[in-house]
Amino acid sequence: MKASIAVDIGGTFTDVVLEHGARRVTVKTPTTPSAPAEGVMNGLAAVLAEAGLSPADVGLLLHGTTLATNAILERKGAVTALLTTEGFRDVLEIGYETRFDQYDLFLEKPAPLVPRARRFPVRERVDVTGAVRVPLDEAGVAALVPALDEAGVASVAVAYLHAYANPAHEERTGEILARLRPDLSVSLSSEVSPEIREFERFTTASANAYVKPLMARYLADLEARLAEGGYAAPVLLMTSGGGLCTLATAARLPVRLVESGPAGGAIFAGTIAEACGLHHTLSFDMGGTTAKICLLEGFRPRMAREFEVDRSARAMKGSGLPLRIPVIEMVEIGAGGGSIASLDPMGRIKVGPESAGAEPGPAAYDRGGTAPTVSDADVVLGRVPLARFAGGTMRLRPDLAGAALRETIGIPLGLDAKDAAVGVSEMVDEAMANAARRHTVEQGLDPSTHTLVAFGGAAPLHACRLARKLGIRRVVIPADAGVGSAVGFLRAPIAFEQVMSLRMRLVAFDPDRINALFAGLHREALEVVRAGAPDAPLTERRQAFMRYVGQGHEIAVPLEPRPLAADDVEALRRAYEEAYARQFRRAIPGAEIEVLSWGLSLEAARAPSEAAGAPAAGAPEPTPAETANLVDPVTGTTAEVPVYDRETLGPGVAIAGPALVAERQTTTNIPAGFVVTVGAGGALILEDRS
After folding, report:
1. What's the CATH fold of domain 494-604?
2. Are 167 and 151 in contact (CB under 8 A)?
3. pTM for this structure?
4. What are 327-366's pLDDT values in tens digits?
């Protein structure tokens, strides 16, 4: 049996997990932002050395990366142009008619990825039915090439009005550009996001074009380095929708990778929820740069069809760039271990969204960082056993952490380093609790009825405090929580999802057109999935996105994966009315219903992993490995508490807080009032009995 390896590139650390039979080996190495593939190779070498294996022993490599996300956030993508229908050049600028903050007189919308000077109108027109009203001006497309050259354009997005209904003009434009400039990267909106609503489609196509050359270079570099290193295993990449795709698909549709790391974390939380029998779960993934919160019902994360990136106002919908892609629904804020703490103009403690990242990192890392971070606060509060951090590969400096907190927070507010650290910790915990409350309430749910599953390098340090702020009584810390997203990659299926718009009222139900559309979606998904799983059994899911005529948004209604017939229309109507009533408590009798878009996903079955990640069974009363001076953020008092090695904790163990449980990649902070037991797969179950 060959080993499987998962690699997750985060903003601060690159996590690597190797599974070989029932054995699991984990490694954290610093991310190398200037050359991400170098950090991947360093992590692979480290994990193989620890496992005593060679590249020839690896049978599968799984990968998730923040490279596409960071390129958009930092505006470091390719010089991109947009070719669009004459008269629609400013769609990217106009956006929505609403303002995300109607009372802000100085509100600034997020800047488009393609400035107006590089948006070129093309004479053509297709109507909403797909009929050609104005033929494509092919000579006009060819005449734009010198202007593209003069602007130094490396990538082009082609987004014509109603191209989802008839992609012929976009496809012909792509052929012309490929003939005249073979090295030019081209993204067609009809391939990237073949859905109605031109603003979202134009933005998604532009984002794909913006990151496509960068991702293509990175993936080619990674592939070359792997070949040089002796790796012959296939490489699959995690998508935002929770599935795996091939290198070729990732290079063609890199926008699908924007939330790949967080998606792996949600998959990981789902496997833990299922193992522990938790039907209502809130996953909490806190790494070095961000914190992600996701609702899971019935062991599966909720899915969405749109995601906003680069929000100018934290947690405010409409303040970012909308990407119309299949994505696991979650809320993400700039609150991680590396998030920088400062004072706002009113002298209040502010945390994030800026991060110290991997270079230079928090002050405690002693790599040149001087700004105080959440990790520095955790070190000063005694939550991190110094000799065990990152498996003992990094030496922390609490004196530097204290000095940074005192200089930036303490002296201006008249606080010592400890009280400044308490303030930083409480502010970041409250920010995460507020995001979690908002996310759950928007779904009509009460967070206190859920179990918190916490993972990521920083989450176990803050999980119990976050739970108390949300009224949650039970917290689960899975085995290998510090590298949870990478473990999630190993549990993810090879899958592909596509949605295409075909607007149809139920009174004009045409099953032949729908069946033809689904046949095309099936062929496209099958090509992607079979490239990574040639022989595995497949699961197909279908959806209709429906609404009452005149409404602005749709509800997803599941369909059976079979051809539709004329007599299915009444079943489709009933299914929509039931779904509508579940969400809004009542249906609207007699109102006309329409379907806006149709979705299909194919998922290849994967053999379950043998690696359980469970610690060895220990004595009912384990012996502490050491002690630590832990600060209680509520009372501000410091107490000497026991520190336990997680590897020694097994079934039958019960530990009462305050205490710390240390492992290679993270530490679990157990406040007073919590009692810890060991559950399925070695997960720590923390119950609040205060």
Report:
1. Dna Ligase; domain 1 (3.30.1490)
2. no
3. 0.86
4. 998 887 878 888 899 998 899 999 877 888 777 889 999 8
